[in-house]
């Protein structure tokens, strides 16, 4: 077993529910995956598929009391994070596992300056002077291409553009050198040039043996950045495998549809192929395969029975009755 084959994080059979006025919503349903050392794993799917809730469950940030992790284990270095107390989890968040949030308001306090928030985060995890922490924070603002980093340290979040706030969050996630970075749509608010610079920073962290869970709806980003891919649809993982297998031998109809919707540089100027319909409400999933109502290849068995992930070899798995192992 090589260095990169060592499992750093294992998510086992996680189910997350939310209590709402309309009933119990199952946002994540029996999801399992792992992240190896020095690996970038992509989690891809449309909005509403459960990607962000999966990420929040790893750091136990599911909002209480309405949200609950009903079942499963989340093993980090073999230790189940779901069994740790609040103090133990605070030591892990930010230092060992950090997260770049999709929502800007989830990470930055409007009441404190950027510098204070970054410095306090560093001092919480490192036994260094405030001056040294300030210098580290300022250096990271420069790394994420924020102009006048010294001046920005004294700014409040509302004084920065959305793109600048996003870069501050990225700096805060990277500056402590965590073992795992969970990046939830990390470059949504950034222009193409800054996106490229941020992804280069991520690659640098990976070269320092940091692992990344990259959450996105952009298959182009998946191709550019990831080693392995998890395709998620309506609360469940429907396909997983290494990047080349997912792109060259997609098996699940949803994965195929995602790939067919990518713009192509060709002489064909026809319309993009869209996936018909929309992700079903978590209150009203089909009783069988959750993709049943949108799948062009669905048949009677798909309506009534939930397909399980079937091993197709080389770590490639798909949850579809049309796989060669299921027919």
UniProtKB/TrEMBL annotation:
GO terms for biological process: peptide transport. Pfam families: ABC_tran (PF00005), oligo_HPY (PF08352). It is found in: Cell inner membrane. It is a peripheral membrane protein. The keyword Methyltransferase does not apply. One of its GO terms (cellular component) is plasma membrane. Its main location: membrane. Keywords: ATP-binding, Cell membrane, Membrane, Nucleotide-binding, Transport. Residues 9-259 form the ABC transporter domain. PANTHER family: DIPEPTIDE TRANSPORT ATP-BINDING PROTEIN DPPD, OLIGOPEPTIDE TRANSPORT ATP-BINDING PROTEIN APPD. This is ABC transporter ATP-binding protein. It comes from Candidatus Desulfaltia bathyphila. The lineage of its organism: Bacteria, Pseudomonadati, Thermodesulfobacteriota, Desulfobacteria, Desulfobacterales.
């Amino acid at each position: 077993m090589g260095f990169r084959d060592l499992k750093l994080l294992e998510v086992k059979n996680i189910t997350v529910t939310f209590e709402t006025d309309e009933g119990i919503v199952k946002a994540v349903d029996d999801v399992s995956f792992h992240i190896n050392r020095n690996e970038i794993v992509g989690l891809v799917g449309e909005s509403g598929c459960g990607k962000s809730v999966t990420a929040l469950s790893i750091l136990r940030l599911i909002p209480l009391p309405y949200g609950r992790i009903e079942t499963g284990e989340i093993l980090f270095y073999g230790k189940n994070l779901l069994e740790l107390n609040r103090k133990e989890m605070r030591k892990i968040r930010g230092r060992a596992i950090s997260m770049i949030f999709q929502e800007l308001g989830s990470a930055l306090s409007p009441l404190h300056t950027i510098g204070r928030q970054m410095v306090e985060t560093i001092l919480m995890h490192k036994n260094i002077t405030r001056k040294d922490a300030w210098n580290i924070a300022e250096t990271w603002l420069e790394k994420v291409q924020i102009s006048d980093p010294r001046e920005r340290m004294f700014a409040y979040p509302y004084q920065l553009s959305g793109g600048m706030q996003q870069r501050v969050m990225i700096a805060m996630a990277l500056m402590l050198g965590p073992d795992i970075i969970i990046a939830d749509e990390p470059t949504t608010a950034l222009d193409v040039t800054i996106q490229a610079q941020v992804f280069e920073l991520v690659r640098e962290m990976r070269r320092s043996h940091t692992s990344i869970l990259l959450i996105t709806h952009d298959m182009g980003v998946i191709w550019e950045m990831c080693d392995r891919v998890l395709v998620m649809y309506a609360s469940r993982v429907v396909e997983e495998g290494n990047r080349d297998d997912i792109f060259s031998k997609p098996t699940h109809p949803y994965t195929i549809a995602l790939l067919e919707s990518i713009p192509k540089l060709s002489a064909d100027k026809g319309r993009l192929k869209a996936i018909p319909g929309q992700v079903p409400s978590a209150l009203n999933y089909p009783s069988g395969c959750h993709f049943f109502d949108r799948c062009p290849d669905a048949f009677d068995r798909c309506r009534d029975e939930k397909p399980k992930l079937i091993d197709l070899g080389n770590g490639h798995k798909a949850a579809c009755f049309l796989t060669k192992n299921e027919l």
